[in-house]
# Entry
Amino acid sequence: MSYAAKILRKGLRRVLVAQISLTLAVAIVAAFRAHHDALRPIVAALAGGAITMLGALVLAYTVGRADGKQGATQAQLWLYGGAVARFVFAIVFLGLGLGVFHVAPLPFLIAFGLGQVAFLAPGISSGL
# Structure
C-alpha cells in the first residue's frame, strides 16, 4: 500500500467516526423532538446517515482497488467508477427512503447532509 493510500484510509476512518457521531446526534435530537412516535425519526436519521456511510465505504473500497492496480489508467477507472457509484447510490437510496419507505424527511435529510459535511473532518483535524 502506498503512502498516499495509507493517509487516505486514515482520513476515511476519521470521516466514518465523524459520520457515526453526527448520525447518532441527529437521531438523539430527533427522538427528543418527537411528540408521540420517537422510533420513526430515529430510523429516518439512521437511514440518512447510513447512506453517507455507504458512500464512505465505497470510497475506501475503490481507493484500495485503485492502489493495487498496475497502471494509472486502471487506477483512474476505479476512482471514477467509485465516484459514479457513490452518486448513483445516494440518489437511489434517497429516492427509496423518501419515495418508497416514506421516512421522516427532516431527520433523514439532516443526517444525510451532516454525513456529507463529515468528509471535511480529515482536513479540519489536520489543519488544512
